[in-house]
Amino acid sequence: MTRLVSYDEAPPEVRRVFDDIKRTRGVPDVNNFWKALAIHPPTLERVWQNLKQVMAPGALDPLTKEMIYIAVSAAQGCEYCIASHTAAARAKGMTDAMYGELLAVIGMAAETNRLAQALRVPVDAAFRAAPPPPIPKA
Amino acid sequence: MTRLVSYDEAPPEVRRVFDDIKRTRGVPDVNNFWKALAIHPPTLERVWQNLKQVMAPGALDPLTKEMIYIAVSAAQGCEYCIASHTAAARAKGMTDAMYGELLAVIGMAAETNRLAQALRVPVDAAFRAAPPPPIPKA
Amino acid sequence: MTRLVSYDEAPPEVRRVFDDIKRTRGVPDVNNFWKALAIHPPTLERVWQNLKQVMAPGALDPLTKEMIYIAVSAAQGCEYCIASHTAAARAKGMTDAMYGELLAVIGMAAETNRLAQALRVPVDAAFRAAPPPPIPKA
Amino acid sequence: MTRLVSYDEAPPEVRRVFDDIKRTRGVPDVNNFWKALAIHPPTLERVWQNLKQVMAPGALDPLTKEMIYIAVSAAQGCEYCIASHTAAARAKGMTDAMYGELLAVIGMAAETNRLAQALRVPVDAAFRAAPPPPIPKA
Amino acid sequence: MTRLVSYDEAPPEVRRVFDDIKRTRGVPDVNNFWKALAIHPPTLERVWQNLKQVMAPGALDPLTKEMIYIAVSAAQGCEYCIASHTAAARAKGMTDAMYGELLAVIGMAAETNRLAQALRVPVDAAFRAAPPPPIPKA
Amino acid sequence: MTRLVSYDEAPPEVRRVFDDIKRTRGVPDVNNFWKALAIHPPTLERVWQNLKQVMAPGALDPLTKEMIYIAVSAAQGCEYCIASHTAAARAKGMTDAMYGELLAVIGMAAETNRLAQALRVPVDAAFRAAPPPPIPKA
């Protein structure tokens, strides 16, 4: 169990990040993850700025990003991250059917990963070829 | 390097699976993964039937499933699976922008997973609550 | 914590799988793993059919299979699976001495894995050679 | 690629370990793993003494130990260790059928591990109970 | 194999990052990692800014940080990262003796990690207690 | 939860190891890890002798070794080991600032590991070259 820094005891540089998290997400308090990271303000600030940029809507929609996050977290065995991002995915509209298929893909990938590694399957020539370089823009 | 079973030397129960893979995917030959799995026909048959079911279109579209597959494979460090499913995702329409965001989410998740684990962050009460049971259908 | 589907609230396609698990294993109720998977009946059905096939006696005896299962689960850090398969191995006759040696091998393998990876040891030529192809049966 | 220390250039404390490996295994030269570890003689000596003790016949036979080693190595993605221990298991009598079932169990365990983690399945009360303490021998 | 973006074909926002890497590190060209990340300029920019901040001298010296980097990379099985950070640690003064001890600690930690997980050892009460909260600075 | 062997019920060969741990560390009782390992005395003895040798002061100081241990444990997701070695590092003088930077490096390494793996970045020629062989001492 780690020390959790509450808003009341937090120094100004931590409160600024907590305030930005609460405003960006429209929540009354930050999750334990941020309260734990607050023991090192530069890491709290850096990780939050990164996450805000990466999880913003873009070429992939926010729900797809949450499901990818769950997949990585399950594959790396992080219980906290699985719990928080499953809740986030649910809040963004993940239905029971989508969740069931997400689980199925995670399970299949985990199985075929280990089979391919155990068998030391050589990468097919078709997958080894690098895609053509992009047209330089400069 | 593993032994790869080619179509020509394959016994009938392996050819049947190879034929189904080629027909389902519309490809002239199967990938090395299947040629390697063919050393154990019951596993070849079982894994292919599973994969065919799991990766079929459903509540999640095939491209989303491929990206989830890549996420798990990167998190577990399976080079073969990363190579084959990145090729599959490209073939299903993953653009450079989508790929870049997929990478970004994988990277962020990997980082916050390890931070949450290193800090042993306790799961928030809000994430611990189980969702209400579904209405019994029987 | 996930939602657990009990027998009483389960729809018919879930009850059918639960009944088969109870009959096959000779147990009065299914473990939490199956109650959790039951939120997605196709995955429940698929995983159970796979597990039943894979764990059946064959060229390897059931206890050896359980110990391999424990090894993978420890190496991937799955607490639930370690707990359930250690109980299963005990029920199938794993003695204290066998369990101690299983732990010792898991620990040594974990250590030499990371040493070989840290050192980037090149695979010996003797291990790279693929075994001769089997005699075609068709 | 790491530096590999050959017998000819090895200092006496390394040659002593190399000689013991060759004698114990009845082989004309040591594998690359040992040549790589030789850059740090205390670790070479320590790891070899450990491995010799752990892999000796005991309550588990040598082939079962090799298969458990493969399982951990596949689950941790160590290509070198998979290659060397698959060769060792083959040399100790692992048949195609045994190898196929080993792969199948590794794959299933990998899949159910990630499903149990993704679902955060609570450990059943039956698995939580510690076994009774042994009768004190002192 | 991924597409590698060379300086000559790179768009201005990529060249700007490449120039900063070369200037900061005093090297004539960037490593393949950066050329590969350049396919997604926002991720290239973000990861470089993070790395520059995190690896700068602080409460821990740069060599200690490189050794921690190697430890994580070995534990996660990333060959590229092991290769590049071992080279970086060597350039920052890691001796053969330091490298040997680093390897030994990585190996021991890998072993005891899996033993503690396999045994499901309960965390001692002494380790569970959170440290006292810091004196609020605000 | 595993069975924990207390000093009072321990056989002589376990008590001897417990006594050495208590004497070496200057503690009144051993941690749960050792009480759990005591179910297999040869493994208890072996792991303790290894750990004592590896963690002794050498070319790396004990605090640096503890931080490397934490890094591996976080990367492999071992909660028990993270807890015990974080306590040990604190006891050896790890300040809040050092801990914060340790976390930051672990997080960055985790992120770039997965990016390098997902992109299948080829190892630079400069990293592939093996260092020159050492001058033979014999």
Can you put this structure into words, describing what you see?
- 6 copies of one chain form a homohexamer.
- Chain A has 138 residues and is mainly α.
- Chain A folds into 2 domains: 1-56, AhpD-like; 58-121, AhpD-like (Up-down Bundle), CATH 1.20.1290.
- Helices cover 66% and strands 0% of the residues of chain A.
- Chain A contains 7 helices and no strands.
- Chain A has helices at 12-25, 32-37, 41-55, 62-76, 79-91, 96-119, 125-128.
- In chain A, helix 1 runs parallel beside helix 3 (41-55).
- The longest helix of chain A has 24 residues, at 96-119.
- Residues 133-138 of chain A have low confidence and may be disordered.
- Chains in contact: A-B, A-C, A-D, A-E, A-F, B-C, B-D, B-E, B-F, C-D, C-E, C-F, D-E, D-F, E-F.
- At the A-B interface, helix 2, helix 3, helix 4, helix 5 and helix 6 of A face helix 2, helix 3, helix 4, helix 5 and helix 6 of B.
Structural class of chain A: mainly alpha
| CATH-defined fold name of the largest domain in chain A | AhpD-like
For the residues shown, what is the average pLDDT of chain A?
93
- Report the helical percentage of chain A: 55-70%
Strand proportion of chain A, as a percent range, falls in: under 5%
Structural features:
homohexamer; 138 residues; mainly alpha; AhpD-like; 2 domains; elongated
